[in-house]
Design a protein that fits this description.
alpha+beta; 6-stranded mixed β-sheet; binds adenosine monophosphate; 487 residues
């Protein structure tokens, strides 16, 4: 009956378990790798995942699905999303086009990845335990419907006990948050393969919550890889007069080597971008692609991406200032770096310069979220008492007003379970019912928010603002808000 921690990332997934008094990463392959690519490839009737999917994907690029985390629970937007592989699934949801007319929802694709994680964890635990539950990390910028979709994927993968934790909170837990006596406010930069999340946490009194957050959903390691790829493709164009962008097979090899170059530049000042036989002359002679790239070139190529990263940090501070006008950079006690991209030296340097202090150095920034999820799992199982991270609301809860504005009745960060009385009134004398819609106030217009519950309460008409109805809004132990009419 083990509950494990899972960091299902846009590009990589890893998992950890609290076992014999400490957190252990679960090995994802016989070679001892602690992460696997979040990639699914459908080959005929077979679904393969992880590294095998990456390998098969070279042969079946149409059915090689990546980066679907951001599309969990998302409706298809015909103007924006009609990209390669994407189609309309049941109920207007975004789905992916598979072979033989089949479609796959992002939830199904995620469940294939999670299913593999569960199998691997069961092998890791051998006969000592079986995985029945998981704590899943979710980006602080995820909306309720995306969280629900991820939980559904976990249930589809066979888990019964599924909880989520915001990724920065998990990161803080993995770095010893539960041991802190005084209030601790770390700034967390989580830079992965597909997304950047920046947040400030508030930790103390046995509680951890996200105090301020920001992020860029479409800025990640892959954008840095693309800059290197563009650079070498342009050099090739100048040298040979041929545009390799027209050739998918060459481009996919270039992207793989670009990522390797980026990683090598984390350990050394310069490296060689090298791909043999990327093209041939008209006489059939092999042409190799060989270019020297150093950190200076890389930093120059990615300058605007680095600026966007700092803009997200600034926006997070602005969010903190809105909550507490006295908040300043000095109130940040530590800077934590999470995600593979924080291994890039220029990223570490720029973050340190921005905050005026060096970030804490963790050996494996890719593993921190999974480790924190495993600690949360241990808390849930009662193996780490005295610390609670699950009892505050992540979203403002509101009631829709007649002019389409979500009026906040329970602000984000409120402890639950709780009940609260709210009074609503009629807007004009013709009304025979009061339409009540309870929302997560994730947008400025009520019509764009997530509706939690909607009901029409019959009333006897009367002059505007005189007919009242009392409601009781409840958030239960699981954090689910509902309302009923007060007696
Ligand atoms: P994550 O989602 O945390 O696994 O991060 C994946 C991203 O980190 C990918 O874009 C990787 O290319 C990048 N990454 C991993 N290791 C390194 C490294 N040593 N240097 C630079 N980038 C890295």
């Amino acid at each position: 009956m083990a509950v494990i921690g899972i960091d299902f990332g846009s590009t990589n997934t890893c998992a950890a378990v609290f076992y014999e008094g400490r957190v252990r990463m679960i090995e994802m392959s016989a070679g001892g790798a602690t992460s696997m690519p979040s990639v699914v490839c459908v080959v005929g009737e077979n679904v393969v995942v992880g590294q095998e999917a990456v390998d098969q994907g070279r042969q079946y690029p149409d059915y090689d699905f990546r980066n679907f985390k951001r599309n969990l629970g998302v409706h298809l937007n015909r103007d924006e999303d009609m990209a390669f592989q994407v189609c309309e699934g049941p109920g207007g949801m975004l789905a992916y086009r598979g072979p033989a007319g089949f479609t796959y929802s992002p939830i199904e694709l995620a469940s294939f990845i999670l299913g593999r994680v569960i199998d691997t964890a069961n092998e890791f635990l051998r006969d000592e335990d079986t995985v029945t539950g998981a704590v899943l990390g979710v980006p602080a910028t995820f909306e309720p419907h995306q969280i629900e979709a991820l939980k559904e994927a976990a249930r589809l993968a066979g888990l019964t006990n599924v909880t989520t934790i915001e990724e920065p909170v998990a990161a803080a837990l993995a770095t010893g948050a539960e041991k802190r006596k005084k209030t601790w406010r770390p700034f967390i930069v989580d830079f992965g393969g597909g997304t950047l999340d920046t947040s400030i946490l508030s930790i103390g009194d046995g509680r951890a919550s996200v105090f301020a957050k920001n992020g860029i959903g479409d800025l990640g390691g892959v954008d840095f890889d693309k800059r290197i790829a563009d650079y070498v493709v342009n050099l090739w164009m100048t040298e040979h007069g041929k545009d390799l962008r027209q050739r998918d097979a060459a481009m996919s090899r270039i992207m793989v080597e670009a990522e390797q170059v980026k990683k090598r530049l984390s350990d050394r000042e310069k490296t060689t971008f090298r791909l043999d036989t990327i093209d041939r002359t008209t006489d059939g002679v092999s042409l190799h692609m060989i270019y020297e790239i150093d950190r200076k070139i890389f930093n120059e190529l990615t300058r605007d991406l680095l600026e966007r990263m700092l803009d997200a940090c600034k926006a997070t501070l602005a969010d903190a200032k809105m909550k507490d006008p006295n908040f300043s950079l000095r109130d940040i006690h530590d800077v934590l770096l999470v995600g593979g991209m924080t291994r890039v030296p220029i990223i570490r340097e720029q973050v340190a310069a921005f905050f005026g202090k060096a970030a804490r150095k963790d050996e494996n920034p890719e593993q921190i979220v999974a480790q924190g999820c495993a600690i949360k799992a241990a808390i849930i199982e009662g193996r780490l008492p005295d610390f609670d991270v699950s009892d505050i609301t992540s979203y403002d809860i509101a009631i829709e007003t007649r002019d389409n504005i979500p009026a906040i009745i329970i602000p984000r960060g409120t402890s639950f379970p709780l009940t609260k009385q709210v009074q609503i009134r009629n807007a004009d004398e013709t009304q025979t019912e009061l339409s009540v819609r309870l929302l997560y106030a994730t947008r400025s217009r009520a019509q764009d928010c997530v509706v939690l519950q909607a009901e029409d309460i019959p009333i006897d008409p009367g002059p505007a603002e005189t007919v009242k109805a009392k409601l009781v809004v409840t958030i239960n132990e699981d954090g689910e808000p509902t309302f009923s009419r007060a007696a």
